[in-house]
TrEMBL record:
Function: May play a role in DNA repair. It seems to be involved in an RecBC-independent recombinational process of DNA repair. It may act with RecF and RecO.
The protein's name: Recombination protein RecR
Classification via NCBIfam families: recR
GO biological process: DNA recombination; DNA repair
Domain named Toprim: residues: 81-176
UniProt keyword terms in alphabetical order: DNA damage, DNA recombination, DNA repair, Metal-binding, Zinc, Zinc-finger
Record-linked InterPro entries: DNA_Rcmb_RecR, Rcmb_RecR, Rcmb_RecR_Znf, TOPRIM_dom, TOPRIM_RecR
Zinc finger (C4-type): 58-73
Taxonomy, superkingdom: Bacteria
Family listed: Belongs to the RecR family.
Molecular-function GO term, any one: zinc ion binding
Pfam families in alphabetical order: RecR_HhH, RecR_ZnF, Toprim_4
Amino acid sequence: MDKHAGAVSELVDQLGRLPGIGRKSAERLAFHLLRIPEGEALALAEAIRRIRNDVRYCSVCFNLCEGDLCSICRSDNRDSTRLCIVEQPRDLMSLEQSQAFQGLYHVLLGRIAPLEGIGPDQLTIDALVDRVREGNFSEVIMATNPTVEGDGTSLYISNLLSEFPIQITRLARGITAGSILEYANREMIADAITGRQKL
Ligand SMILES: [Zn+2]
């Protein structure tokens, strides 16, 4: 027999499906949501509803945004000669928090991972090549994660872009091989951008 009432049990199940949340944590969260003021709990529900309804990918860089263009692509204060390529929107957020990069971004929405059946055509690489062809970039910075797949993706893209008269660099390896941008601290990321190397 289920030890919780239907609605509570349903919420525990849903929370328990989130990454990093085990059964015990899911129960703790569910009871927390029952205890806090109703407005606070419903604000969470509303935030979830809004990200699903209103948030989409920027039509230029594939960052997350509300509307057609993200705030970075809309800004007049960015250096439009530098383009930084990242795997995921959360990597872009980490780089933005470091405040060490003033250029534009391109989010791949993944990395080439043959073992998982993810090829170049499932990423935003075609759009990237079009952007580089039509833009006036002088430097493209590869900021894929320093993993086997991230490096492979970076190599694939730098080969594609080699026909254009631009410098291709990659982040310095202050970030330990295998570690992920998402978890690197601000100073490490700033160092990695400042010390970027020719690819
Ligand atoms: Zn954008």
